[in-house]
Design a protein that fits this description.
single chain; alpha/beta; Rossmann fold; 5-stranded parallel beta sheet; 10 strands; globular
Amino acid sequence: MELFNCHQFFKNNFKYHTEQEIRQQPELWLQTVAIIEKQQNKIKNFFDKIIKQEKQLRIIFTGAGSSAFVGKTVVPYLNKKLPYRFEAIATTDIVTNPTEYLQQEIPTLLISSARSGNSPESIATVNIAEQMVDNLYQIALTCNPEGELARKMDRQENALMILMPEQAHDQGFAMTGSFTTMVLSALAIFNLENLDQLSKKITLIAERGTDIFTEELSIVHNIAGENYERAVYLGSSTLKGIAEEAALKMLELTRGKVATNYESSLGFRHGPKSVINDRTLIWFFFSEDPYVRQYEVDLLREIANGAKVKSIVAVTNSYQEDVKQLADYYIGLSSAETGGEDDVFLAFNYVLLAQLNAFYKSIYLGINPDNPSPSGNVNRVVKGVEIYQYRK
């Protein structure tokens, strides 16, 4: 099969915000850690105040779309690491059904992730939580200092605003750097006692991310050139959040011309596997945990040996020969120094690869990735949402 010649097409052709915003992420990750380091004492004092006042604390990550996936990505790791009750609940769920998600008598820290901070649901969630929860504390992770969410946090007594690097406020349609910097900020504020180690870890991750643009770019180009109409992204636990984000990026940037799905490796067999046909791309995000990977490799083997699919893409951190032999496209990211990480730290370069692939697929289909929906059917900041007043 003759694949799309992306090398020639994109030579000296970096004219899109979206591509630049994908490429600058490794640098933004370093800037994000520096921002948290600079505000370390302020953040610590904020948490110390809450912990002193509240013996039991519920911590909710919220947001809409990609911002909601920030919580889905970090919550499994944080629940394992810290003795608090972490949850990820989308603003779009809280706004419509607040009494099912918020509890008056339980002290709650609401962490809102938002690129613009102007989404109607983001502001409505904050307003409803302030009405419903007696002891409410808030953190806003946002990219826009002028957004309504940021301005609202400035007026709150028990609130903290953390701004992402200026360039993380993506100008393109899709969230790219805004997503990964908010994920990193969410991890960093709960790792204040180990910021030096985190900084070294992110430096290695950023270096490997930069290498992707030379070492793996041709693979990503060739995947984009495949003639597929469906794409399925698979990941376990924290990487399921990354699979959901990857699926949304492909759906958004191709204007739905590539239909997408996501699941865990075990969950995929329970019905969602019906999506497979000979125009389906299957993308595996492999765990670094050997126990988890057993289940993932079983599914990979099952699909490779039995299902008729367009292509299988497998991404691992440490090199996995058995995975490589079963996949049509294999990307092994790690050097020895970055092996053995918790899966949440694989999220950054895993999703960077998926963003790049969605970008190039968009171009291949003749779509402007900066504005994939010129009709206004979907918008960079959601429009057309009527917020109804909630009365306690």
